Amino acid sequence: MSSLTTIEVNKEDMKFSAAHFTIFSGTERERLHGHNFRVSMSISSPANRNGLAFSYKILKDKIRALCDELDEYTLLPAKSPYLAIVEQGSQYQASFNGETLVFLKSDCKLLPIPNTTVEAFADYLLQRFLHDDDFVSRHDIAQVEMKVSSGPGQWGSCIWREGI
Ligand SMILES: Nc1nc2c(c(=O)[nH]1)N=C([C@H](O)[C@H](O)COP(=O)(O)OP(=O)(O)OP(=O)(O)O)CN2
């Protein structure tokens, strides 16, 4: 009977401090605020006779690099159905429900996500991990789970599974 082993990395420094606001509907959103978001990744692969799936240092380096890209920015959803963002010189002007929010572009990161929620961040980071290099194809990977937390006791996650 074959078995799967799982490596999980969620070091203390796998985090990004960012401002955001969750959009609940076309008329309801939060005020701008921030979190120290934590990131955890788990990778499952078939147990092998060498008892080593892969060196998890690769994973730690990759997650830290992805967190650094998001750290200390205001994160905005470029694919929100409710927020229209336009560039005006050094600013982003984001229109929501008849109001316009103005941000310095240099303080912001626009992400290709529909909302700045933990589940959307998990999906974004998972896609970056899967597509930035060929780690999954180079290793016999069965499943990758990416998790993002906005605070103790609350996580969102996204899973890639071979064959789905
Ligand atoms: N499905 C989701 N729901 C909510 C998200 C999310 O990312 N996905 N995020 C939020 C807000 O960003 C909010 O800041 C966090 O929610 P909240 O319950 O206020 O949590 P706190 O960090 O303030 O912790 P508490 O101590 O429990 O208040 C809301 N919903």
From TrEMBL:
Its EC number is 4.1.2.50. Keywords: Lyase, Metal-binding, Zinc. Pfam families: PTPS (PF01242). Pathway: Purine metabolism; 7-cyano-7-deazaguanine biosynthesis. It catalyses: 7,8-dihydroneopterin 3'-triphosphate + H2O = 6-carboxy-5,6,7,8-tetrahydropterin + triphosphate + acetaldehyde + 2 H(+). GO terms for molecular function: 6-carboxytetrahydropterin synthase activity; metal ion binding. Signal peptide: none annotated. Its cofactor is Zn(2+). It is an enzyme of class 4 (lyase). Belongs to the PTPS family. QueD subfamily. This is 6-carboxy-5,6,7,8-tetrahydropterin synthase. It comes from Simiduia aestuariiviva. The lineage of its organism: Bacteria, Pseudomonadati, Pseudomonadota, Gammaproteobacteria, Cellvibrionales.
